[in-house]
Amino acid sequence: MADNPPLMHEKHACNMLLSAVCCCVLPWLIASPALGQLADQRYQLGRRLIRFETAWQAASHDQRTASVRPVEQAVSSFFGLQLADAAKRLDQARSIVDPFPIDQQPRWLEANQHFVDIETLIIDPSESPVRFRVRRLYRLATASSDNSALSGESTDDAPEAIQGTLKLSLLSPTGSSEGQVLASTTIESPMLDAWTTWSLPSLPNGDYTIRATLNQSEVASEIISENLTLCHGLNKKTEEISAWYESNRRGKGDSKQSSARMLAKEILQICKGTACETDIPWTQWIEDFDSLSDESVPFDQWIQSQPGNSRWCQLSNGNKSQVIRLRVPSALDKPTPVLFAFHGAGGSENMFFDTYGAGRLIDLASERGWIVISPRQTLNGLGLNIVEMLDELQKSLPIDRSRVMLVGHSMGAAQAMQQVSNYPQQIYAVAALGGGGTVKRSNALEQIPFYVAAGDRDFGRPRAMLLAKQLKEIKANVRYTDFENVEHLVIVQAALDDVFRFFDDTLTLSTNRSSTLHQDESKP
Fold first, then answer.
1. Region 437-447: what's the mean pLDDT?
2. Distance in angstroms (rounded) separating the CA atoms of residues 75 and 17
3. Is 138 exposed, middle or buried (0-12, 13-18, 19+ CB in 10 A)?
């Protein structure tokens, strides 16, 4: 595979690993007591995956090949619900694609058994200090996972101290001074699971990154910490949001009111200390709620107000609704192509933005000036189909309905096949990765270009190959690609450049055909 450009670092991390879960595992997990800890577990797995994917992008062929086995073990552990072991395997894979000096690697792995848990992710710094604790996610001493660490159960009766020095640094929000340390605190030999307070200086509202460094035997290792949002006057703000939510929680409502309800509910829950699966920019969410709950602000004005940034909203159509994460390009002065991105089972709308290839799909689509729509789906599928979503968004955005593309991974590939089978005249091109699905033959479907890919060590490969075979049998235009030494988890990252070349070639071919047809029609 060709070398790829450096990645743009994303602060938002999410739950990529859970995309690998199959439908036979999810019902058990949903019905189990582990559900209460699911967001914490998704967050930790996602953060470890984004570190691995970022390093994988810059790694050599040999390093990538060597990392396949621990990633396969991570997926296997996840299927066995050994989530801590899955996290350990991802850390081991990361140490292969981004190798440390031989004398530092054991210390890095030892340090990254631990993570920093922030009690409440939104605080008013003038009224409350930051409360945090160090927890152990897994143990290196055993091959199997220690899931009691994830569930908060102690494995020892006596408190345990971590040998070393923990330093937390509060970094400035995104902007001209990004990365500047605004405050820090240091703890010698921190006790596991013991809450510690950290009083911050006077700082403006914003979404701040916390960098956690554990120094052991003169080896400094950055470990995972959640991020923090500062909001002055938080109590008053939550009272306002709660009052609005109670007055508007029932009823159908349009997409504007439905979006405000969704944001309000999530903000109120996180203020109560609920765990979150990813680093949400809560300052933006609060500002978005203020705009969406303001009757004087039209929905189209809000949705176009921050081009280049992603937004979360809930589209509404009668009794049905659909949560999406949306990114609109900086220029919206002409009809714009749309790319739908369907995540895998157990995932969320954040995956293509944050973890699949560390968000590279968003970078590649942004370079082309496309609109990206990532819908949240469950085992029951989507709340709105693509036609209903396009109809609703076209009220606010200049969508080019003749250039709508789909990409899906695993279960998302099956969803893409369902949508293109039901609405072939609405879709321009489709890419299915690490999975497949059934298709309904039609004259319109035969005209659509398909790209299907899987890793040669991908357990979704048989489904992908079967899909390609079915498409060939109905005379559809399909291109199939196997990626060497790639398994189910990394297939999106490995195939992204190929996928976008496929989309580019398809669009170019269509433009050339249209130009030729126009010239032929203009001849006397």
1. 91
2. 7
3. buried
